[in-house]
Amino acid sequence: MIIRKKSYARAGLIGNPSDGYHGKTISFICRNFEAEVVLWESPELEILSARRDHSEFSSLKALREDVGLYGYYGGVRLLKATAKRFYDHCVENGIELEDRNFTLRYKSNVPSQVGMAGSSAIITAALRAMMAFYGVTIPRAVQANLILSVENDELNIPAGLQDRVIQAYEGVVFMDFDRETMEQQGFGNYETLDPKLLPPLYVAYNTNLSEGTEVFHNDIRGRFNRGEKEVVKAMQRWAELAQETRDLLVAGKGSEIGSLLDENFDLRRSLYKIGDGNIRMVETARSVGATAKFTGSGGAIVGTFEDDKMYTALEEKLTPLGLNVIRPIISE
């Protein structure tokens, strides 16, 4: 029996980065890119490496390019950590696993380190494969927590729940991470929204620009924990923007959300040190009349556009900067 499970890239539509601060966000799946894990039964448990895990290069230049593309860590550590946390979850919840082993292989075309959740896509696909192999059912909200624990607890990667929730639920999801609710039930309130409520959206990304979440999120956590008013108020406003966007979408007023997306980025720019290349992406997109904000932590943007003419203008302006522009595929 061969098991194949997929998970997809995601774009944070609005509200990020408040998801890590008991805020609210809206995210959607981008099926243009996927991570796939293939699992089959075998005598020993084995995790196979993929291209991003290799350690043999044709030259120093090739090594440098590989590090720029994938960083210093590949996907094997993600799979090992996922397997460990899956086993821990089963033990902690009294779930008996059949005594058999498997071989795990993965591949991914999710652009690396550009805020489209490539790492959690690999983890999500691996978790789904192991659940199917052992016949284990885990509620989607709990899956999201489990996936986050792989990154936070096992690998010490700073991350919030947004990516993990949308990859567990797929489609479009409004997420409310209210502190009291989280403490009472262990997860937030997650509302799926009809993708048809969204206005025309584009995503543009450039793998040469990303700083990575570990760098981008630098000291915001510390400033928030210290109660700095500017940071605390920003988190509150990002949550409000997500709520306002959700309400407009449900009311059938999706064409009115663009200004809220712009405000989301402008507020972020006032707090974070953002590289010139990332700012140029946003300003160039806005120069043709589109809206623009980060999909995550830099390297990719998402926004609204009015018509095919404006989309063509986006391509004409952004492509010379080394960006790829796509229309996200949200539904199957």
Could you explain how this protein is built, in words?
- This protein is α+β, with helices and mostly antiparallel strands.
- Helices cover about 45% and strands about 20% of the residues.
- It contains twelve helices and ten strands.
- Helix 2 (about 75-90) crosses helix 3, helix 2 (about 75-90) crosses helix 4 (about 140-155) and helix 3 packs across helix 4.
- The longest helix is centred in the last third of the chain and has 22 residues, at about 230-250.
- Mean pLDDT is about 90; it is low at about 210-215.
Which range best describes the helical content: under 10%, 10-25%, 25-40%, 40-55%, 55-70% or over 70%? 40-55%
- CA-atom Rg in angstroms: 20 Å
Largest sheet: 6 strands, mixed
CATH class of the largest domain: Alpha Beta
Question: Element order, helices and strands?
Answer: EEEHHEHHHEHEEHHHHHEEHE
Tally of DSSP β-strands:
10
What class, by secondary structure content?
A: alpha+beta
Number of domains as seen in the coordinates: 2
Q: Tell me, rounded to a whole number, the average pLDDT.
A: 91
Strand fraction equals: 15-25%
CATH architecture heading of the largest domain: 2-Layer Sandwich
Shape field: globular
Tally of alpha and pi helices: 12
CATH fold description of the largest domain: Ribosomal Protein S5, domain 2
Low-confidence stretches: 210-217
First-last Cα distance: 25 Å
